[in-house]
Amino acid sequence: MFPTIGDLISYLFHIPVKINLQTFGTFMALAFAGAYVVFVAEFKRKEADGTIRGMMVKETVGLPPSPLELLLNVTLGFLLGYKGIDVLLALFRGADPAPGFLSLQGNLIAGGVFALVWGIWVYKDKLPESKEVERYKHPYQLMPFIVFMAACWGFTGAKLFDAVEHIQELRYVPLQVLLARSGFTYYGGLIFGGLTCLYIGYKNKIRLIDMADIGSPGMMLAYGIGRIGCQLSGDGDWGIVNRYVKPGWIPQWAWASTYPHNAIDAGVYIPGCTLQHCHQLPMGVYPTPLYESVLCILLFSFMWMIRKRLRTQGAMFCLFLILNGVERFFIEQLRITPKYFLQLSQAQMIALLLIAGGLAGFVWLTMIPYFSGAGRNPAKISRL
């Protein structure tokens, strides 16, 4: 496994490289980048066909920053300097930046300099006289804000759902559970991040059903990319022991992996190892992150190919709910997760709700023509 990007580059190109950038975090960033591209493409397509529209917004430019804006910028600058310099230095030295990032230690001089720079920066657009301007705002221009807010709330939701899943550990070592670098529940991130996207769309006069359709392919792709990071780093999201005989055409790592050099140091010590992560599992387990990454990227490809054929609003979102729910429900059969009601894991219970919601949505969409009168008057069908 490759806990850091340096480990991955060293393996691929057979050269020693010290880049202590976490593989899991890097692929999470790539997942958001992939979702960003897909979201923007769907925003533009939906705007072009008239499904959604931009809006004229009025802005006052040239005003001096308010005390709150000044405080927020100075605080942001201080944090970037106080923590950022030490994190960069740790990366260049090949050391792990996480312990320093999660501690109270930092660089006061760099923090002060960055705070001053950020405080001055907010004055750069101040004019001698403020004026009100009006501009057209395209829906896709919301994406930087959507990505930032969805990332913040998504990580929060993923961590909270994981804490609930490990409620016993949370009771005794809450800080260790909440601040651990591993331990993120996908559905927590999906629910919190998805609700954030819907809220931002609603505030900008985009109908919720249109926002849900726009986001569905991107969310599927982001999940597939994120799972690649889980597989490459060995972050603990693997499955149960695979006791079946391997078919000859399947590579061992795709059938039953021991996750050598995994990022969480799970398993037994690898004799003679001198690296930072020197553990592997005693028995081969199902590499479920690999399976999910392949499945979800294939499902995204399917959704992307048929997106222009699904002309009914809400159909893409209902399809996403069903496909994602079915995929996760069955993959959970191979994963090591706590079981609750009816021997179902937290993810399986949520997956069943998603499947039910998607099926109910499709039933509702087929009934709309009838309830609108088209079912009783065939002449109305062409106008629906």
From TrEMBL:
Top-level taxon in the UniProt lineage: Bacteria
Keyword Flavoprotein appears in the UniProt entry: no
Pfam families noted in UniProt: LGT
Transmembrane segments: 20-41, 61-82, 102-121, 142-164, 184-202, 312-330, 350-371
GO molecular function: phosphatidylglycerol-prolipoprotein diacylglyceryl transferase activity
Keyword Nucleotide-binding annotated: no
Entry keyword set: Cell membrane, Membrane, Transferase, Transmembrane, Transmembrane helix
Alphabetized InterPro entries for the sequence: Lgt
One GO CC annotation: plasma membrane
One annotated GO biological process: lipoprotein biosynthetic process
Family: Belongs to the Lgt family.
Record-given protein name: Diacylglyceryl transferase
Origin species: Chitinophaga oryziterrae
